[in-house]
Design a protein that fits this description.
Helix content is 24%, strand content 22%. With 238 residues, the protein is α/β, with parallel strands linked by helices. It has one domain: pyruvate-formate lyase- activating enzyme, CATH 3.80.30.
């Protein structure tokens, strides 16, 4: 797994993003998430070592813009360059996680066609409202690979009608971490999993979050075991 942050920072996206990962990570390094800037590692996918080999290897997945959003409007002027690097590095697989599928076409490469095979678009929807806002748009886009992330999961989400399209390859869900985390209910997780099972879609329960409710009982889960506790549930679908 590699992380490539071609630009840094992001404005607040939605009410559901009150405690999102990007703000916590930026705060750790004393950065202001409201300011979008081009990073010093912008051209990382094309950088080579002294032997002429790419520094980013051709194995695993490159997660793009983990402290921002690839389609943020403030980065419109740089996105074409980023797409060109993605096109040239067809040996790498880039996963782009976004809350802005409505801005997908801004600066889209002219040779995109039905999509680059080395790009997965992962659209986030933390609740039913945002699922119904974003997923119809996502399903209308020319993509080779589409996934959905319900993290932080803030309520019961029914995406059956979107899974029925057969275009969504994986669903990832998880609770909310950090200070001020909101509750994730195991019943919501199982309901989402049942939909994936029905439509034979991969399902990944990533983490419990800090406040996890199961069978009516509320648990406070330390951050360092949130992922392992989710794995112990044994409910992932390959």
């Amino acid at each position: 797994m590699e992380i490539w942050n071609p630009w840094h920072g992001c404005h607040k996206i939605s009410e559901g993003c009150r405690n999102c990962y990007m703000y916590r990570r930026d705060a750790e390094f004393g950065k202001d998430s409201s300011v979008v800037t081009k990073t010093s590692s912008f051209d990382l996918p094309l950088r080579c070592d002294r032997n002429g080999a790419y520094r980013l290897s051709g194995e695993g997945t490159v997660f793009t813009c983990m402290t921002s959003d690839f389609f943020v409007s403030e980065a419109d002027g740089w996105r074409a360059e980023a797409w060109e690097m993605i096109r040239r590095r067809s040996d790498l697989h880039f996963e782009i996680i976004t809350k802005r599928p409505d801005r997908f076409y801004v600066s889209l490469p002219s040779d995109w066609g039905s999509g680059y095979d080395n790009v997965t678009l992962s659209v986030t929807c933390e609740d039913q409202l945002n699922a119904d806002r974003r997923l119809p748009i996502a399903l209308s886009l020319p993509l080779r690979h589409l996934e959905v992330i319900t993290e932080p999961m803030l309520g019961r989400v029914d995406i059956s009608k979107y899974l029925a399209s057969g275009r969504i390859e994986q669903i990832t869900c998880g609770g909310e971490s950090g200070s001020g985390a909101r509750v994730c209910d195991y019943g919501w997780v199982l309901f989402l999993r049942s939909q994936c099972e029905q439509y034979r879609t991969r399902f990944y329960f990533k983490q419990t979050g800090a406040l996890f409710r199961k069978d009516g009982r509320l648990y406070r889960i330390p951050r360092h075991i949130q992922h392992s506790q989710a794995l112990k549930a044994g409910i992932n679908l390959p």
